[in-house]
Specification:
The complex is a heterodimer of chains A (about 525) and B (about 475).
Chain A (H helix, E strand, L loop, with lengths): L5 E6 L3 H12 L4 E4 L7 H10 L25 E4 L35 H5 L9 H15 L33 H10 L6 E2 L35 H9 L3 E3 L3 E7 L5 E7 L5 E11 L5 H9 L19 E5 L12 E5 L14 E6 L4 H10 L4 H14 E8 L8 E9 L5 E6 L4 H4 L2 H14 L3 E4 L37 E3 L14 H18 L1
Parallel strand pairs in A: 1-2, 1-8, 2-5, 3-14, 8-16
Antiparallel strand pairs in A: 4-10, 6-7, 7-8, 9-12, 9-15, 10-11, 11-12, 13-14
Chain B lengths: L5 H13 L14 H10 L3 H4 L13 E4 L2 E4 L16 H10 L14 H4 L4 H14 L22 H8 L14 H12 L2 H5 L17 E3 L2 E3 L15 H10 L1 E2 L3 E2 L2 H9 L6 H11 L24 H4 L9 H4 L6 H8 L1 H4 L18 H4 L4 H9 L1 E5 L2 E5 L8 H14 L9 H9 L6 H4 L1 H6 L2 H18 L1
Antiparallel strand pairs in B: 1-2, 3-4, 5-6, 7-8
The chains are: A alpha/beta (about 525), B mainly alpha (about 475).
């Protein structure tokens, strides 16, 4: 190791990078982890939250630093999308990554999600199957402390306990919030399968984390650390000797002999440049920033697929007032979902859909409208209380397909404070996504009908769920994909990409658990080699 | 306790029958296994004899940090090779009650044989039966204890043992069955409370006249638990003590954390209610020792709620440094961010006490901030009757200065406002260890200087004098 600064250098300290770092440290490897953003302990993020006015901006409690601008910085992401859809995304550049402000849904993909093309004739197949990844899902669930039940059919197709599991969830499901009980009793008779949503909010003390007590602010920061976030594994990795370099922005991967990566160059906020060498490099810098680094470094792109095939769960969202109190906000910010449309034959024609229930305390949603109506004093209080009790939001997690024209690129016209480029995004909705609208409208009408509801916002607009996939797509063929199933780049033997950007299908579920499973799998492979 | 579940005795018998190669060691009686298991729980043998690598309760390797160096608990499973499988009842008894290892070598008093000296013959036999017949043999070569000179010369312990080797008294003819006498038997011998709670003298012996008057235990403090109403816990009722030992928590009085959390988890909470009540009754009778406290450390009832209006001020996104900088944060702000979500803005926890009140807690109210600092640093993790109580570790989130600030805030806002905590206090707590006497600290030099000979001579004279007296 004398000729290298470390066995492995990992760029990015989010859940995927930190899990890779932790596995490599367990295997006794020396690891340096670079992170563009700063260290912000949980308690400080919570103090920031207390002191900001933008309580519904999930990025706002975290620093938006000029050397690593956040997704919400004006002009940092220049996006071209459709007249009825603005491309907006959200991620954090901070030690621990974007899971610092997620809601922690921890889904496994379904077996068919791995073979979308061979089953439905659309999209791409993965180079590995569900069975190949299954043991790594178990590992990832244990690392993250996932809460769930193996008793349900998560595909909604009457398949019994599904998808198959070789081990139970590490933690049992929490109690059902009242809202979810009402959804089950009203929508169940209509044939909708309202199931538990697996997640990373400990239902019992787990791995040093206390149990969730329903503070209902998973987003933007779990105030007690019951919810899994990437800093859990940053701490573990650091305790095992991994060297963390925060506020260090990687801007170039240097190629050497035999097309191996020999060094990473990074820049500090003061503009000074530094270089580190290692035997293996892992880029784990989020689905948009990872392709940016590869493209500015001119690496891993012989396929011309880097930055292409950008996917999200772009879909629709609807607010309604029920005729009965549902009291959302008891428990955590998401509970349960409807899975019927995850894997139906219509997937050949249009997006699969999963309906997600928001469970936020909705005072903020209902109050502006009441103020506009001129209500004041007790009348306002009573109206807020009434509407808050009856407010409900349901949104779609809609599957998108990989399309080479949906892409992210560096934007040389927009530089941050240390002269590094911003991002340009082209992202248009195709007929496959738009084709699910009728189905969604039909289901939304049923949901509202079941509660004699009043529509507040018609589900006309489209919105992202900030789940980035496809941008450094995985495949067997080096001509049309960037990494193989070990997350190793086809072009560089010692360069691996740990990001949900490797996923060749988006399916209808939050991708982080799959990303962590893939990362752990890749790290174990790397540990064998260095 | 006298009743042994039939199936257990049968299963042990079946085990023996199925494995005729392993003959029952002489003196080990299958019918005593369950009783021995209970006594081993009362003795909390696992706390020092566990294997931290595998989690095996008795296969050894746990390190006890003592002022004279790291002492490792050996494997006490019945493995013939790495455990005590070939030990006779006499050898077992000598180790437990006299501090003499197999072959007669001297054990270090990290093994509480000084307390165990009072265990009855019958209970010793039950313990032996359990360890021989009720514990699965596990192979593990525990690390050797290698102390620095002169403590590596085990025969030095001879004089020490003559003087201090039987604080638990002579073996009880018969273990009392109930009441205060039962409590005394358990506290003085098996539970070996004095090992942690009695202060130590010049030679690390338990100080006479200071029984359970409180001592430093590594970084934590094992407090004064005598019946003194101010320095001790004289104001705790028997019910309080019962609940504390049974659950590890008494609202407004105390939380079992650190080693005491483990003692409650592994030992006290698993005893019969009768035995816990006997212990509580006896503890109430322990002679008061005034160790100089001005106020009782538990039972404080006043609280100064967080001055929220003074803490919060608008943060502007463009002022990004303010989102990162922590050095200027006050103890109250750290409390608001790190603690208040669970313990409340007034420090009183949640109404259902799932999140405990800090107000009244002995760690908060004590003039010695050790247990407050260590609770914040290491958190609490205690599983009692299947209920896992957890406070996260904060040492990865707060540095020494921040821990001092928040401890200072908690101690003064939810306890006695005069109990300030400084960074120096936190460093002193982290420095930890028992107060080491000059004699122990300089033992090597003294020995080299030949003074040890004098010390031994003095000890010899002492012994002669005591025997005469």
């Amino acid at each position: 190791m004398s000729n290298y600064d470390a066995d492995v250098i990992i760029i990015g300290s989010g859940a995927l990078g930190a899990n890779a770092a932790n596995q490599l440290a367990i295997a006794g490897k020396s690891v340096i982890m670079l992170e563009a953003g700063p260290v912000v302990p949980r308690w400080k993020a919570l103090e920031n939250y207390h002191n900001i006015s933008a309580k519904r901006n999930w990025c706002a409690p975290y620093p938006n630093v000029p050397w690593a601008p956040s997704a919400y910085t004006d002009g940092y992401i220049q996006a071209k999308s459709d007249p009825d859809f603005d491309y907006v995304t959200s991620y954090l550049r901070v030690v621990g990554g974007t899971t610092r402000h997620w809601a922690s849904a921890c889904w496994r993909l379904l077996p068919n999600d791995f073979k979308l093309h061979s089953t439905y004739g659309v999209g791409r197949d993965w180079p590995i199957s569900y069975d190949d990844l299954e043991p790594w899902y178990v590992q990832a669930e244990r690392e993250m402390g996932v809460v769930g039940t193996g008793e349900e059919d998560q595909s909604g197709q009457g398949r019994g306990h599904y998808p198959p599991r070789s081990a139970p969830y590490p933690l049992p499901p929490e109690g059902k919030p009242y809202m979810l009980q009402r959804m089950q009793s009203k929508l169940g008779p209509l044939g909708y399968q309202v199931t538990h949503e697996p997640h990373g909010r400990a239902s019992r003390p787990y791995d040093g984390r206390p149990a969730c007590v329903g503070n209902n602010m998973c987003e933007p920061v779990c105030p007690i650390g019951a919810m899994y976030s990437g800093d859990v594994h940053v701490d573990k990795a650091v305790a095992r000797g991994v060297k963390l370099l925060p506020e260090s922005v990687a801007f170039k991967l240097e190629k050497g002999e035999k097309n191996r990566i020999v060094a990473v160059h990074y820049r500090k906020p003061d503009g000074s440049d530094h270089k580190l060498t290692a035997k293996v490099f892992i880029v784990a810098a989020h689905g948009l920033e990872t392709p940016k680094l590869l493209l500015v470094s001119d690496v891993a792109n012989s396929s011309d697929q880097v930055g292409r095939n950008l996917m999200d769960h772009t879909g629709m969202s609807m607010n309604f007032l029920s005729d009965e109190p549902l009291w959302t906000g008891r428990g955590s910010v998401q509970h349960g979902c409807i899975v019927n449309r995850r894997d139906e034959p219509t997937r050949a024609k249009h997006s699969a859909i999963r309906y997600s229930f928001r469970n936020l305390v909705p005072n903020v949603d209902v109050t502006p409208d009441l103020l506009k109506q001129g209500l004041m004093g007790k009348a306002l209080e009573d109206a807020i209380r009434d509407r808050t009790s009856r407010f409900m939001n349901i949104s779609t997690m809609s599957e998108t397909l990989p399309s080479p024209t949906n892409r992210v690129q560096p934007n040389p016209d927009r530089k941050d404070s240390i002269g590094l480029p911003g991002l340009k995004v082209n992202y248009h909705l195709d007929d496959y996504v738009r084709g699910m609208r009728d189905q969604a409208q039909h289901d939304f009408a049923n949901f509202i009908g079941a509660f004699n509801g009043t529509m507040l916002d018609a589900p006309t607009g489209w919105r992202n769920q900030f789940h980035i996939m496809g941008t450094v797509i995985m495949g067997n063929d080096p001509k049309n994909s960037v990494v193989n199933s070990d997350l190793r780049t086809h072009d560089h033997e010692n360069l691996f990409l740990c990001t949900t950007g490797v996923m060749p299908s988006s399916a209808t579920v939050n991708p982080t658990l799959t990303g962590v499973a893939l990362s752990i799998r890749a790290a174990r492979q790397i540990a064998k080699e260095v | 306790m006298a009743r042994i579940p039939a199936f257990s005795a049968l299963s042990v018998a079946a085990l023996l029958a199925a494995a005729p190669a392993i003959a029952a060691p002489e003196g080990a009686d299958p019918s005593l296994v369950e009783k021995g298991r209970y006594l081993a729980t009362a003795g909390d043998c696992t706390s020092c004899h566990n294997n931290p690598k595998t989690g095996n309760p008795f296969s050894g390797g746990y390190g006890v940090g003592s002022p004279i160096g790291m002492i490792y608990g050996p494997n006490i499973t019945p493995s013939a090779k790495t455990g005590i499988g070939s030990w006779t009842l006499d050898e077992f008894s000598n180790a437990v009650r006299k501090g003499r290892g197999r072959g007669g070598h001297y054990l270090y008093p990290a093994m509480p044989y000084t307390a165990f000296s009072g265990i009855s013959d019958a209970d010793t036999r039950a313990l032996y039966s359990y360890f021989m017949l009720g514990v699965p043999a596990a192979e593990n070569e525990a690390p050797k204890t290698e102390l620095a000179f002169p403590f590596n010369i085990r025969p030095l312990m001879m004089g020490w043992d003559l003087l201090f080797g039987a604080s638990g008294g002579k073996p009880a003819a018969q273990a009392p069955e109930s009441g205060v006498a039962r409590g005394k038997y358990l506290v003085d011998t098996l539970a070996h409370c004095s090992t942690c709670h009695t202060p130590r003298g010049m030679l690390m012996e338990e100080k006479t006249g200071s029984f359970l008057a409180g001592a430093q235990l590594g970084q934590w403090k094992a407090p004064n638990i005598t019946s003194d109403p101010v320095s001790g816990i004289g104001k705790w009722s028997e019910d309080d003590l019962f609940r504390y030992l049974k659950t590890g928590y008494v609202d407004g009085k105390g939380v079992a954390a650190g080693e005491m959390g483990l003692a409650v988890q592994n030992s006290f909470s698993k005893l019969t209610d009768g035995d816990i009540r006997s212990i509580a009754a006896y503890i109430k009778t322990v002679p008061p020792v005034n160790t100089g406290a001005k106020e009782p450390r538990s039972g404080w009832s006043k609280s100064a709620p967080l001055p929220v209006d003074k803490l919060e001020s608008p943060l502007e996104q463009k002022d990004y440094k303010a989102f990162i900088t922590v050095s200027n944060m006050s103890g109250a702000q750290i409390y608001e961010g790190a603690c208040a979500t669970c313990h409340g803005y007034d420090g009183r926890g949640t109404p259902d006490r799932v999140m405990p009140s800090l107000v009244g807690s002995s760690a908060v109210g004590s003039a010695d901030p050790a247990n407050l600092v260590m609770t914040i640093t290491d958190g609490v993790s205690r599983t009692v009757h299947g209920n896992h109580v957890l406070m996260p570790v904060f040492k990865t989130k707060l540095n020494t200065s921040e821990i001092a600030k928040v401890a200072d805030y908690v101690a003064t806002a939810f306890g006695d406002p005069s109990h300030r905590v400084t960074e120096g206090d936190v460093q002193r707590v982290y420095g930890g260890g028992r107060e080491v006497s000059w004699l122990i600290a300089n033992a090597a030099a003294l020995t080299w200087a030949g003074l040890a000979v004098v010390v031994m001579a003095i000890i010899g004279l002492f012994v002669a004098w005591r025997r005469k007296a």
